[in-house]
Structure formats: C-alpha cells, structure tokens
Write a structure and sequence with these properties.
The protein is globular. Helix content is about 25%, strand content about 25%. The chain is an alpha+beta fold and about 350 residues long. It has 11 helices and 15 strands. A hairpin with a 5-residue loop joins strand 7 and strand 8. The protein has 3 domains: about 80 residues, Rossmann fold (3-Layer(aba) Sandwich); about 60 residues, Dna Ligase, domain 1, CATH 3.30.1490.20; about 190 residues, ATP-grasp fold, B domain (D-amino Acid Aminotransferase, Chain A, domain 1, 2-Layer Sandwich). Strands 7, 8, 9, 10, 11, 12, 13, 14 and 15 form a 9-stranded antiparallel beta sheet that branches. Helix 3 packs antiparallel against helix 4.
C-alpha cells in the first residue's frame, strides 16, 4: 500500500522481504532475501531513502545502512519502539503518561512486581509480540510466574491494567526539514487482541484530539522523528490520554484514510520520508475500517466473508492483500464511507456481521 501510494508521486519502490510471496512484489521491485543479506542491503543503499513497514526488522539491517542512505524512521527509533520497556521509558521522557509497568528479565524481578503495578496486569514479551501474541493476563503472583515460564522466560514487561473508555490512535509525520503534520484521531475496537474496526471521527470528549496531537508532537520532537509513527492511546474517563504503544510506521487503524477523501496515511509517509511538502491528512467524510482476518470454521476450513452482500452495501470498498489464509492473520480490510457519523455507525453495524 505504500508502494501504490508512491507511484502517483513518480516514486518507484524496492522492497526487501524474505517471503517469496510478499504482496508488495505485485507493485514494487522485490528483493527476495533475508533482511540482513549484504547484497540486498547494498541495493537498498542505492535508493534515495529507506523506510519501514514492519517493526520486526533486525536493527542490524538498519545499522548496515547507516551513513549510506537516509533511513526514516532511523535505527535508534526502531530499537526503541520494538522493545516495550525502552519504549515506555522514552515515552515518559518525552512527557507522555504510560500504564504502570515493571521490566521482567529474571526470576528476581517477579516478587512484588504485580503489586507494584496495581495487582492485575498483562505480561508481554518485550519484543516481537503483536496482534495479541506473546502476552498473557495475570491476576496473581502464581499466574505471573506461570505466564513468564510459558513465554519462554524471555525479557518481558508487566503492564498494570488501566480502566479506560476507549482506545484511539493518531499518526504524526515529520520531515527531515522539521515540518510536522498529523493524521486523524481514530477510535479503535479490538477482538481477541486483534484490531477489529476503526472509526473516524472518534467519539471523544472535547479537547482529546488536541491533547493527542500535543503528545504526538512531543514524542516526534524528542525522538528526532524523520518519517511517520503512530501512537496508540487509552482514553480515560474525562478525556485524559495514556500512551499504550508506538508503531514506527503507518498503522492498521489508519487504513481508513485510503477511501475517505484527501491524502492517505501511506502518501503521508512517502512524503515525510522523501522530504516532500506535507500537510495534515484526514478523511473528508466519516469513514470506518473493518479488518478481514483469517478464521477457521469448526471443520478447519476457512470462513469466508459474504462478499456479495458487502459489495451491495453503500459506501464499501474492499482491500485484499494477496496473502495465503492463516487463522488469525490479517488478509485484508473493508473501508466504509458515509455522509454523516450516524449513517456511518448504522452501515458499520450492517457490515460487521458479514465478516467472520
């Protein structure tokens, strides 16, 4: 989707991806090699700039490109955002509030940790976990120890549970010249640890979006951002925001910007990375997104969305990723546009039952 957004700007994209079936091969030059392959990295170094679509890239790959080609966001930001403990400390250093947390890296870190975060929490691997993977909810010291054993005794972060009204996200882009622009504040709903739907505009108290922008700008400046990052927030009763995590890239919740009119998040990232003129991007109309996730039926066969009914709904547009089916894997999304927020919510209620 980044490559598709780059083409109208006269930009050709080269993608380094170990999967021979990488979907981007359909619209970009595909370097089929490991992320750390020297020959492939040499070819990336010949580009005008390098950016990220996926945070589980070895930091060593970006280190090999350092001082050879602009990497936006850079290796230091990637290393910070892909490690939960480092990320939370850096967010606090930028002036943002996070959930209470404890780093769990050895047996000696377990005693008293749950009490220090409020008595209930979620243990998450410090690296590699996403879409609900690599985490477990814990309510006692015994559950915490068992969860750490089950996660392989790897470095983890124990986050205290936060009582919140809704989850929202907002992206910020910053060019090498220091120009900053923001995406829309989007309201998100998760199911089984995976983003199910996103809606714009978010139903939040007055001032919430302004506060989200303030925090996003503070993080972008403190982290010397070049490129685009997305901040995920918990909105507390009354409107206060806690930063849950940061993605060093375009985000699933921003996919709705493809079809609401105006600039998409993908074009915004391309513009920021290449130091092109940049402005705020947000849909011109109320817009929603529903993820299409691989789901296995009782007999093990894939459950398929009702595509005919989806196409018959006003305002829908389907985006499929050309990925093989796998249970729990995001294989596409459906965007939905409506003339007003009420109509959007009604159409969304009709759309969601059509997607397993």
């Amino acid at each position: 989707m980044l490559a598709l957004a780059a083409l109208p700007l006269g930009v050709r994209v080269t993608v380094l991806e170990p999967d021979e079936h990488a979907p981007a091969r359909l619209c970009a030059r595909h370097l089929h090699a490991p992320y750390t392959d020297p020959a492939a990295l040499n070819e990336l170094a010949a580009c005008d700039a390098v950016t990220l679509e996926f945070e589980n890239v070895p930091v060593e790959a970006l280190a090999a490109l350092q001082d050879r080609v602009p990497v936006r966001p850079g290796g230091a930001l990637l290393a910070r955002s892909k490690h939960r403990a480092h990320e939370k400390r850096a967010l606090q250093g930028a002036g943002a509030t996070t959930a209470p947390f404890e780093a769990i890296e050895a047996d000696t870190d377990l005693p008293g940790a749950l009490a220090r975060v409020g008595g209930r929490g979620i243990l998450k691997t410090s690296e590699l976990g996403y879409d609900g993977k690599g985490q477990a909810r814990v309510n006692s010291d015994a559950e915490l120890r068992a969860a750490w054993e089950n996660l392989g005794r790897v470095p983890c972060v124990l986050e205290g549970l936060v009582s919140f009204e809704r989850e929202v996200s907002l992206a910020v882009a910053r060019t090498p010249a220091g120009q900053v622009a923001f995406g829309p504040l989007v309201e998100n709903v998760h199911r089984d640890g995976i983003l199910r739907s996103s809606v714009f505009p978010a139903q939040v108290p007055d001032g919430t979006e302004a506060r989200a922008r303030e925090l996003a700008r503070a993080v972008a400046d403190a982290w010397a951002l070049e490129g685009l990052i997305t901040l995920e927030f918990f909105q507390l009763p009354g409107g206060d925001l806690i930063v849950n995590e940061v993605a060093p890239r375009v985000h699933n919740s921003g996919h709705l910007t493809q079809d609401g009119g105006g600039v998409s998040q993908f074009e915004a990232q391309v513009r920021a990375v290449l130091n092109l003129p940049l402005s705020d991007w947000r849909p011109l109309h109320p817009t929603a997104m529903v993820n299409v996730v691989g789901v296995d039926g009782p007999d093990g066969s894939p459950l398929t969305p009702d595509w005919a009914a989806i196409d018959a709904l006003d305002g829908t547009r389907v985006h499929l990723y050309h990925k093989a089916h796998r249970h729990g894997r995001k294989v596409g999304h459906v965007n939905l546009v409506a003339p007003d927020p009420g109509t959007l919510r009604a159409r969304l209620a009709s759309l969601e039952p059509l997607i397993p």
